[in-house]
Amino acid sequence: MNFSNVSTICPYCGCGCGMILQTIDQEIINTLPSKSNPINEGKLCIKGWNVHDFVVSSQRATQPLIRKDGDLKEVSWNEVLEYVAKELMRIKDQYGPDSIAFMSSAKCTNEENFLFQKLARAVVGTNNVDHCARL
Ligand code: SF4
Q: Which of 50, 52, 120, 134 could disulfide-link 102, Cβ–Cβ 3.0 to 4.6 Å?
């Protein structure tokens, strides 16, 4: 059995709390707050304390899904991207660009968030862009 403590940053929001993931044989089993991190100084919110749960959750989506005839069906990335692009353009044409909102994530890099707002503003034509870190 190989036990280890891995120092990392919480992926849930933009605060960037430091945490330690405890692993056994490379499987994450627990989360602890980092006392030496100047952001959180040994504290975590309830999301941070449970960060290890989602990694191995059976409810985690591992493939794109599209609802067909009332049921979610696994589809390829090409199919889902084509579907999303067509639907965004259909909604934009029918209701205007401000009928669409773009919600990004603190888990993305600054560069990914920059590209995301470019897609919203330059391609779709809306300033409706927000982010989960604005708690
Ligand atoms: S979700 Fe909670 S623990 Fe994670 S970075 Fe934000 S405040 Fe810190």
A: 120
Q: Is residue 68 domain-resident?
A: no
Which domain covers residue 23, as residue numbers? 3-55
pTM: 0.67
Dump pLDDT digits (tens) for 51-94: 999 888 888 888 999 999 999 999 999 999 999 999 999 999 99
CB of 20 shorter than 6 A to ligand 1: no
10 lines ligand 1 (CB under 6 A): yes
Burial 45-83 (b: 16+ CB within 10 A, else e): eeebbebbeeeeeeeeeeebeeeeeeeeeebeeeeeeee
